[in-house]
Fold this sequence. Notes:
Layout: E1 2-5, H1 10-27, E2 31-36, H2 41-51, E3 58-62, H3 76-86, H4 88-102, E4 113-115, H5 123-128, E5 133-137, H6 141-149, H7 155-164, H8 183-186, H9 192-203, E6 208-211
Parallel strand pairs: 1-2, 1-4, 2-3, 4-5, 5-6
Amino acid sequence: MQxxxxxxxxxxxxxxxxxxKRFVTQLDFQVTIFVLSITDASTIRSHQFxxxxxxxxxxxxxxxxxxxxxxDTPFVGTKVAMMMHQSLPALRSAISAMTxxxxxxxxxxxxxxxxxxxxxxxxxxxxEFRIPxxxxxxxxxxxxxxxxxxxxxxxxxxDEHANKKLPIxxxxxxxxRFEDTLEVFQDPSSPARSRFLCTGKEASTADxxxxxxxxxxxxxxxx
Length: 223
């Protein structure tokens, strides 16, 4: 049994859908995808997309969370990160129930928890239940390398990037230009920066990392 903890939005759900489909059809795994209960039009469409393949895997919608008094920023990434954070108790309860149900029954045990970069806090839950834990980088190896490298960068690097627009050097990758980076790099006061750095630290504790890319696309980044 393979649980996925997926951020809302088609950009995250489609890669998870494709990965889950391969696990089911090629590896004969049982997959459960945990998604957040959100009522905006885009998320409703993405949930409908997932449910269209409900014959392949189980879809579990976690209870809705209220972040209205917790986040005061237009940055979508911060809002998504907070929604994922607030959903952790529900995810923990669901995994606990799955673990209990599989004990002494014909149900397969949980073999691994797979999360995206917005769900890295859930890796601690997998650790608690002694479940192997993986991060799925849905975009590129370059971005994932940036996430993992960011916590190791000196504060001076961030300041020079924000104030002097100097590029950020990421090992094994083309340097990041100022105009190509996220708000967390461009704005030293961004409330999203601390969460972004924590994401990199948490992702580095995973037992493995899956990347949505291939060698011909990123020959300089992939070893």
